[in-house]
């Protein structure tokens, strides 16, 4: 498994992002392709508007593909989460990518290599020829959080499942330590991961290409954010699954 180098860790601290090219094996990327395609086909067959209404975001556990859960246990209990997560493809490898492979890198970047919490996960699927409709404006991911939670350390692990560039929809990031510089344009092969702090300003281009552009993006927090809330309104936080190593 690829490791984060000391330079990666320093870059994440200083600039708010770092990249591991070819982080995931072809086998893991293919599994995530299968899941992305299964969920995208479901969304399109149901007649949902993937770009205008869903904003290109498909959450595997809540998009409607699985029947609603009988209880909320899967949001905080690791075994219940694993059972629900693996039922999307009837394949046990997916939850281990989320709770182990990617979580380990997230844990190192958030400063506690032994423990991290999965807080959210989504596919971001940009349909072909959707350039005008599938771009994301400048934002920080912390803006999606309840204001009471915005100071917590979190990391988004933006996993390219297809090669990405300006044409088919990539991200552009504004270096935290040098915000006046031109944005850095990410161009990476499939299987690469861009780790972004929730303070990093970034945007993305729409997809002007002929093929779907698929990304999978789990997000992790240093602390269990869901359990901090007692009013049942933890905005944009679906999960608090403890990953330990
Ligand atoms: O995949 C993209 O184009 C950008 C996604 C993003 O920034 C987000 O979901 O917060
Ligand atoms: Fe974002």
How many helices?
Answer: 4
CATH class category label: Mainly Beta
Rg, nearest Å: 17 Å
Low-confidence stretches: none
Name the overall outline.
globular
Nearest-integer average pLDDT: 95
The helix/strand class is: alpha+beta
Q: Which key phrases capture this entry?
A:
245 residues, alpha+beta, Jelly Rolls, 7-stranded antiparallel β-sheet, 4-stranded antiparallel β-sheet, binds 2-oxoglutaric acid, binds fe (ii) ion
What does this structure look like?
Strands 1, 2, 3, 5, 8, 10 and 11 form a seven-stranded antiparallel beta sheet that branches. Strands 4-9-6-7 form a four-stranded antiparallel beta sheet, with no helix packed on it. It has one domain: q2cbj1_9rhob like domain (Jelly Rolls, Sandwich), CATH 2.60.120. Helix content is 23%, strand content 23%. The protein is globular. It is an alpha+beta fold. Helix 3 crosses helix 4. The model has no long low-confidence stretch (mean pLDDT 95). The protein has four helices and eleven strands.
Helices and strands in order, then pairings?
Blueprint: H1 6-15, E1 17-20, H2 26-45, E2 57-58, H3 78-86, H4 93-110, E3 115-126, E4 136-139, E5 154-160, E6 171-174, E7 184-185, E8 193-197, E9 201-204, E10 213-221, E11 241-244
Helix pairs in contact: 3-4
């Amino acid at each position: 498994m690829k490791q984060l180098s000391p330079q990666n860790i320093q870059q994440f601290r200083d600039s708010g992002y770092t990249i591991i090219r070819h982080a995931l094996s072809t086998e893991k990327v293919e599994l995530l392709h299968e899941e992305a395609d299964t969920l995208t086909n479901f969304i399109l067959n149901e007649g949902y508007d993937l770009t205008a209404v869903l904003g290109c975001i498909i959450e595997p556990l809540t998009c409607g593909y699985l029947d609603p859960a009988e209880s909320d246990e899967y949001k905080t209990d690791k075994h219940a989460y694993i059972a629900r997560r693996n039922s999307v493809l009837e394949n046990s490898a997916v939850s281990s990518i989320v709770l182990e492979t990617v979580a380990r890198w997230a844990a190192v970047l958030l400063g506690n290599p032994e423990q991290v919490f999965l807080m959210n996960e989504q596919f971001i699927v940009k349909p072909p020829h959707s350039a005008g409709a599938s771009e994301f404006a400048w934002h920080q991911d912390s803006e999606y959080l309840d204001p009471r939670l915005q100071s917590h350390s979190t990391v988004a692990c933006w996993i390219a499942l297809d090669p990405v560039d300006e044409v088919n929809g990539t991200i552009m990031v504004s270096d935290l330590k040098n915000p006046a510089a031109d944005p850095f344009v990410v161009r990476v092969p499939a299987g690469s991961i861009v780790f972004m702090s929730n303070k990093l300003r970034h945007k993305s281009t729409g997809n002007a290409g002929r093929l779907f552009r698929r990304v999978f993006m789990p997000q992790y927090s240093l602390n269990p954010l869901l359990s901090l809330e007692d009013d049942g309104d933890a905005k944009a936080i679906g999960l608090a699954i403890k990953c330990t190593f």
